[in-house]
Amino acid sequence: MEQAVMEQVVTVGLDGSAESLAAAHWAADEAERRELALRLTHAWILLCPLTPDSPAADDQNYWSKRIVHDAHTELVRDHPKLTIIEDLVADEPGTALLDAAAHSRMLVLGSRGLDRVASFFLGDIGLHTIVRAERPVVLMRAGREANGHGRRVVVGLSLHGPQDNLLEFAYVTAFTRDVPLHAVHGRRPDRAHTAAGGDGMARDTMDRARRELDEVLRPWREKFPRVRVIDEIRLESPARAVVQAAADSALLVVGRRKHPPALGPRLGSVVQAAVHHANCPVAVVPHE
Prior knowledge:
Helices cover 40% and strands 21% of the residues. By secondary structure, it is an alpha/beta fold. The protein folds into 2 domains: 1-145, Rossmann fold (3-Layer(aba) Sandwich); 148-288, 3-Layer(aba) Sandwich (Rossmann fold), CATH 3.40.50.12370. The strands form 2 sheets. The protein has a 10-stranded mixed β-sheet with strand order 3-2-1-4-7-12-11-8-9-10, sandwiched between helices. Strands 5-6 form a two-stranded antiparallel sheet. α3 runs parallel beside α4 and α8 runs parallel beside α9. It is elongated.
């Protein structure tokens, strides 16, 4: 399959909700930091073509246009120099968002938080997009507690296989925000070895994991010498380690492996935990 040409743009999906407007504000900030354009995309399968002489009263696209126009008007007040592109697409939202993501540096979506629980509510469209997108997808909730104004970026690392896309996204995000990068790896000690060796075996697990983490981070430290890195090994489940480390951070970055088609698109346990329980914006980055 031919690779889509990536444009120098951040795309946000709009549906008229408070969550999608929060996503638009986050995306505008990120586009400005990265010196990219911002594309506001709204998709509706029933969008109708209009002739130039069609009366305004007959415009069946009125509400779709208003969703995008109102967001544009609000964003331009805070970002007068940002290039903002309005994009109305006559297609199913899931299909339109995947196509937009393929041509963007990242796709930003709003997600609904569940009352009293730091959680994202992912609808069918959001889930469909995350598990199939070729580019990073950022999930953003409305509300001050999830606005991503923390003073560090957190990245969860598995240490298995190449993770260049994941680390590049995390480092660039930390660099453009001028904040530290907190690299976290969670690993459960082998229960049989721990029972036999006690604290000594746990220390061995910790030391081995730290060596592996240092090896993974070394070339990126050299590439981004100005980014201060905090590396941490947690002897617990990777999912729990990542979610706890992300508390009050600017962004949590997690990876999603690109599975062969025979296996079908799916989310691993760490990504599921992150998108359901992190109390900050979450970037899901596809990697090999």
